């Protein structure tokens, strides 16, 4: 799998320098370029080894390991309350949703009944996180295509969500708000008002996004017909989230395996059949509108009651295997816990959406131009710590 | 009308009465050189600051506001930093070409400055083939970029340089054709005469719709020629990190950076000269009073006002549009802009021959 240049020879790593042109003429005028681990378009420490013929991509080889913190292994030595916090550092843009998946898995094992109020709060938080995450993606996507201004517009609205989160959860990015049995604290008294204000604001802004980017002819030319991923390929690569839905695969866990109160709210699963970057782009833009719909339905109907179920101080999962899955902003996140009956998981495994989505990149990019690689990678919405745990 | 001609004339008279003619030529050359370099520095600093301020306003930010009043000295501080930085030359680079390239790009930018009329009677070199000279010299800058890309021994640089080569060579055609359409209308290649021909009105307004089309094509083409977004494929930050100047640092990088802004100024100045009447004030038909008031505004203000308006336009593009892909860029030129400007040139020629323009 790894190219020879990566193998450590005589104790010293063989050099892989961008400027080394000797590689270039190796086979038939092919040029090998390293995009990343430090590159403006990879949004993190993703390392892509690209084989080029002129401007045309022959092969894309993602290399991982630059931000591996062995989170799964770390979780094995943390208690069932503690390990949830570590998962905020996986897909840090949907930290809430990661925590949610883990809490749900623990609750499943202990058969804790989560109070209605906590369920609704969780869903609202999830959807706000999804909006925030998609907004960042939207800005970054436009930036990948060379338009810088949308990035700032996206951050303007994302900032409002972060402020709401900060007020209730005490943190802006890694909130650690979900705990087994519910949520950590009750909502801030301002919460409902501020969320409603945000929804009002955001509805106008999202139209602005469409005006600025979606309808732009250059943007459409750059994304339409680029990074084709057929329905069959999307399934066989295990793509989930907007990547799969852009290819017409029903994969919304919120619809397929409803959790919390998702079966009680009305929202649509967005499906596009374009199979290209533009379809994936549209899915995410429309998903933001759906999230707004969900929040709107729930924000006035938060039931009274406990925000957390009564749980024991020390949680011990019974011997067995437990699995839960949620729809994060990037796709399906699965949490698989093997318990030996102790206070810590025996083995834990996360099925992260980014990893499968990234694996389809090579397939999607072959034969296209370098510019298309960025347009395709942008719509995959990669968060590297999620891929490389 | 207020003019700088009297000042330059009196200086010349004084010089001729004091020194012999050869000495006068040398002294005048030195003065012009100093002025040009001074203008360069001033333009570079202003335009970079302007770009940052314009970008900031479009991106709901404030932009530089710490160094000096309203951040006025930010670019000066940046330049100072760049001067003090080490100018690295990569190991595998072709050292001679690598170090030569920024100067080639810079010298080309300086050379094009010569025939531009900054104000009434204020022009360094009123050559009789001014427009031809501009389009000829401006195509040399691509050599500097190719040199930089090749000599860096970096794949990103190489790709950026190759893109830039294809791009500049292609877009020069439609830029040239747009320029020719004004040459056809005014009947001269000399910059001063082109300006003089717009005494009664700017060609943009007098040449009917074809002149407007030529103007739009000119703006698109020069945006591409100066490697500015949405045509910044030679740099393409998200694709090629920094394109052809990836390996440059310190003052050598600053020269590329400066040359980019000087080039923007020059192409906008050419655009203002050809289409918007250069330093000619705005005159409307027989409105004597209005025209008289307009004459009171100094000609240099008119010239710089028009130029900076066009520069703002190009900056506006940059902070609004996404980047094109390389094949789309070439398609746009060869399939759309070039045929349109060719037909447009024919229409303009017809207008000029029949005397249909205002």
Strand content of chain A: 5-15%
Q: Which residues of chain B sit in consecutive blocks of at least 5 with pLDDT less than 50?
A: none
Number of strands of chain A: 10
Number of helices of chain B: 15
Order of helices and strands of chain A: EEEEEHHHHHEEHHHHHHEEEHHHH
Topology, number of strands of chain B: 2
Q: Quaternary state, please?
A: heterodimer
CATH topology of the largest domain in chain A: Cytochrome-c3 Hydrogenase, chain B
Order of helices and strands of chain B: HHHHEEHHHHHHHHHHH
Distance between the termini of chain A: 20 Å
The gross shape of chain A turns out to be globular
What is the radius of gyration of chain A computed over CA atoms, rounded to a whole number of angstroms?
Answer: 22 Å
How far apart are the first and last residues' alpha carbons of chain B, in Å? 24 Å
Largest interface summary = A-B, 37 and 36 residues
User: What strand line-up does the widest sheet of chain A have?
Assistant: 3-4-5
Mean model confidence by pLDDT of chain B: 83
Radius of gyration of chain B, whole Å: 21 Å
CATH architecture of the largest domain in chain A: Orthogonal Bundle
Layout of strands and helices, then pairs:
The complex is a heterodimer of chains A (389) and B (358).
Chain A lengths: L7 E2 L2 E2 L16 E6 L11 E7 L2 E8 L7 H5 L7 H4 L8 H16 L5 H29 L4 H21 L8 E2 L2 E2 L7 H24 L2 H7 L7 H6 L4 H5 L7 H4 L20 H23 L20 E8 L4 E8 L7 E5 L1 H7 L1 H5 L4 H11 L3 H4 L2
Chain B lengths: L4 H14 L2 H38 L15 H11 L10 H18 L4 E3 L2 E2 L6 H9 L2 H11 L3 H32 L4 H6 L6 H4 L1 H18 L11 H4 L9 H26 L12 H9 L2 H20 L7 H29 L4
Antiparallel strand pairs in B: 1-2
């Amino acid at each position: 799998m790894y190219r020879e240049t990566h193998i450590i020879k005589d104790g010293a790593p063989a050099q892989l320098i961008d400027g080394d042109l000797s590689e270039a003429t190796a086979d038939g005028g092919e040029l090998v370029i390293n995009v990343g681990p430090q590159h403006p378009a990879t949004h993190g420490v993703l390392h892509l080894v690209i084989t080029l013929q002129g401007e045309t991509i022959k092969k894309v080889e993602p290399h991982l390991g630059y931000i591996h913190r062995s989170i799964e292994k770390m979780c094995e030595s943390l208690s069932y309350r503690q390990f949830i916090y570590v998962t905020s550092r996986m897909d840090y843009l949907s930290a809430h949703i990661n925590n949610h998946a883990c809490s749900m898995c623990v609750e499943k094992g202990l058969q804790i009944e989560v109070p209605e109020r906590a369920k609704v709060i969780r869903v609202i938080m999830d959807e706000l996180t999804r909006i925030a995450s998609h907004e960042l993606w939207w800005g970054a996507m436009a930036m990948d295509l060379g338009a810088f201004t949308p990035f700032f517009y996206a951050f303007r609205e994302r900032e409002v969500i972060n402020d709401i989160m900060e007020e209730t959860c005490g943190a802006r990015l890694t909130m650690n708000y979900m705990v087994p049995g519910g949520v950590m604290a009750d909502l801030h008294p301002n919460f409902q008002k501020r969320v409603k204000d945000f929804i009002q604001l955001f509805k106008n802004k999202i139209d602005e996004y469409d005006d600025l980017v979606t309808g732009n002819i250059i943007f459409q030319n750059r994304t339409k017909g680029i990074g084709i991923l057929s329905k069959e390929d999307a399934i066989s690569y295990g793509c989930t989230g907007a990547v799969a839905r852009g290819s017409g695969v029903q994969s919304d866990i919120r619809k397929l395996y409803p959790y919390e109160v998702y079966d009680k709210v009305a929202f649509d699963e967005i499906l596009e059949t374009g199979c290209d970057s533009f379809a994936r782009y549209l899915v995410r833009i429309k998903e933001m509108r759906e999230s707004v719909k969900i929040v709107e339905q729930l924000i006035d109907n938060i039931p009274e009651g406990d925000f957390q179920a009564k749980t024991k101080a020390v949680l011990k999962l019974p011997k067995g295997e437990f699995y839960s899955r949620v729809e994060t902003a990037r796709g399906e996140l699965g949490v698989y816990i093997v318990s030996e009956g102790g206070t810590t998981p025996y083995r834990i495994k996360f099925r992260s959406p980014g990893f499968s989505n990234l694996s389809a990149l090579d397939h999607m990019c072959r034969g296209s131009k370098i510019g298309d690689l960025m347009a395709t990678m942008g719509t995959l919405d990669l968060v590297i710590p999620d891929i490389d745990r | 009308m207020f003019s700088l001609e009297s000042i330059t004339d009196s200086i010349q008279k004084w010089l001729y009465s004091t020194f012999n003619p050869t000495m006068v030529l040398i002294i005048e050359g030195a003065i012009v050189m100093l002025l040009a370099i001074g203008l360069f520095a001033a333009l570079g600093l202003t335009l970079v600051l302007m770009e940052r301020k314009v970008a900031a306003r479009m991106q709901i930010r404030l932009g530089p506001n710490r160094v000096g009043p309203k951040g006025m000295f930010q670019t000066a501080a940046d330049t100072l930093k760049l001067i003090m930085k080490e100018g690295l030359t990569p190991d595998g680079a072709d050292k001679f070409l690598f170090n030569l390239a920024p100067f080639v790009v810079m010298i080309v930018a300086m050379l094009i400055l010569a025939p531009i009329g900054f104000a009434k009677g204020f022009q360094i070199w009123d050559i009789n083939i001014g427009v031809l000279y501009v389009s000829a010299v401006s195509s040399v800058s691509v050599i500097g970029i190719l040199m930089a890309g090749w000599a860096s021994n970096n794949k990103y640089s190489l790709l950026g340089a190759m893109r830039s080569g294809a791009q500049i060579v292609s877009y020069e055609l439609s830029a040239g054709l747009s320029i020719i359409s004004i040459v056809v209308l005014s009947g001269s290649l000399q910059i001063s005469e082109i300006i003089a021909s717009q005494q009664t009105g700017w060609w943009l307004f007098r040449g009917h719709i074809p002149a407007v089309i030529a103007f739009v094509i000119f703006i698109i083409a020069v945006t591409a020629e100066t490697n500015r977004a949405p045509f910044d494929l030679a740099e393409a930050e998200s694709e090629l990190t920094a394109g052809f100047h990836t390996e440059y640092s310190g003052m050598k990088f600053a020269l590329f950076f400066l040359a980019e802004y000087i080039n923007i100024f020059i192409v906008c100045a050419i655009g203002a000269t050809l289409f918007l009447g250069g330093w000619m004030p705005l005159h409307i038909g027989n409105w004597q009073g209005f025209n008289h008031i307009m004459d009171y505004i100094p000609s240099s203000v008119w010239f710089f006002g028009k130029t900076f308006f066009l520069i703002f336009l190009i900056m506006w593009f940059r902070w609004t549009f996404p980047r094109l892909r390389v094949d789309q860029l070439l398609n746009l030129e060869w399939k759309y802009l070039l045929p349109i400007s060719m037909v447009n040139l024919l229409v303009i020629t017809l207008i000029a021959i029949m005397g249909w323009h205002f």
